[in-house]
From TrEMBL:
Coiled coil: none annotated. This is Predicted oxidoreductase, contains short-chain dehydrogenase (SDR) and DUF2520 domains. Gene3D superfamilies: NAD(P)-binding Rossmann-like Domain, ProC-like, C-terminal domain. It holds the Pfam family DUF2520. InterPro entries: 6-PGluconate_DH-like_C_sf (IPR008927), DUF2520 (IPR018931), NAD(P)-bd_dom_sf (IPR036291), OxRdtase/DH_put_Rossmann_dom (IPR019665), TM1727-like_C_sf (IPR037108). Residues 7-125 form the Putative oxidoreductase/dehydrogenase Rossmann-like domain. Residues 143-267 form the DUF2520 domain. Transmembrane segments: none annotated.
Length: 298
């Protein structure tokens, strides 16, 4: 099957803009006809990695033959960019598809474009994109969620050619909770690794979280293979309340900054252990009382 190459414009030459452009041009074979950004620095960085016919810091330079636009600016700039696009008289809105890539915002921020005839969508890469040089093999594995106007899912399947199996539909009303889950899966996981490093340092150990990698990896593997609840082990799951007390005392004395984090996770872990039926309601309640007493909830 041969694909029709689309004329694509990227607005926002940052990490996601560069990755999407690489995906669409190198993997699928579309043309990046324009890249628009806020500064020449980000444009130059983009051009070192992806070819584009027009580059500009003005949205007015978007060519009239553009068929697909990706707004990959920070969330706070998306609505403004969309409103500026709506003022462009040279665009053929009825032949235009516009996406943004925010995980939390819906396609509603692009509404003015839909009123003019464009198809709109929020297409969120479910990935932590922290640099500009992902390999094609890595990019191919990225999953996306998609929400938008009525025809957007079919159109996106067409634009993404045979990568449609990696695109999952999502409803507008699901986006905020979905994004909270993503933040836990990525950002808070990093914060957890940071806390682990700091605790090891506080213990004067010359190891960091990499030493604990096998433990982290087996926990994820067990969650995959046994299910999240059944994967739980440790003092709370065993009902070792005195071990939890030792932890809380040590943190209170030596590392009080970490006490709220430990306590919040302990409360969630008590919930999981109870769900697993490894602790009784009575023990769960005793443990909750203990943890709460260290964070002033009792
Ligand atoms: N990074 C991730 O892991 C990730 C994952 C999924 C989704 N997202 C979403 O993807 C979007 C982009 O995130 P990012 O991490 O790629 O951000 P980023 O690296 O900070 O890139 C944003 C780019 O937008 C440009 N820009 C800012 N305001 C602009 C405007 N008004 N007009 C044109 N260009 C403008 C910036 O240009 P200058 O550099 O020249 O200032 C910058 O290059 C966000 O909606 C974010 O929520 C991010």
């Amino acid at each position: 099957m041969t694909i029709k190459p689309f004329n694509i414009a990227i607005i926002g030459a940052g990490r996601v803009g560069t990755l999407i452009a690489k995906f669409l041009s190198e993997i699928i074979g579309h043309r990046i006809t324009a890249v628009i950004s806020r500064s020449t620095e980000s444009l130059q960085r983009f051009l070192k990695r992806v070819k584009a016919e027009t580059t500009s810091i003005s949205i007015l330079d978007i060519p009239s033959d553009v068929e697909v636009i990706f707004i990959t600016t920070p969330d706070s700039a998306i609505r403004g960019v969309a409103e500026n696009l709506c003022k462009l008289e040279n665009l053929n809105f009825k032949n235009l598809v516009v996406y943004h890539t925010s995980g939390v915002l819906t396609s509603d921020v692009l509404s003015c474009l839909h009123w003019l005839g464009a198809e709109i969508g929020s297409l969120h890469p479910v990935y932590s994109i922290s640099h500009f040089d992902y390999s094609i093999d890595e990019i191919k594995k990225i999953k996306f969620t998609l929400e938008g106007s009525r025809k957007i899912y079919d159109i996106t399947k067409w634009i993404f050619y045979n990568f449609d199996f990696n695109i999952f539909p999502i409803e507008k009303s699901q986006k905020i909770l979905y994004h909270i889950a993503c933040v836990f899966a990525s950002n808070y996981m990093i914060s957890l690794l940071h806390a682990i490093d700091e605790i090891l340092k506080k213990a004067n150990l010359s190891i960091d979280n990499k030493f604990l990698s096998p433990l982290i990896e087996i926990s994820l593997k067990n969650a995959d293979e046994l299910g999240v609840v059944n994967a739980l082990t440790g003092p709370i799951e065993r009902g070792d309340i005195e071990t939890v007390r030792l932890h809380l005392d040590e943190l209170k004395n030596k590392f009080p900054e970490i006490l709220p984090l430990y306590s919040s996770l302990a409360i969630e872990t008590i919930r999981v252990a109870f769900k697993k039926k490894s602790i009784s309601v009575n023990l769960a309640s005793k443990m909750l009382d203990l943890v709460s007493s260290y964070i002033g909830r009792k």
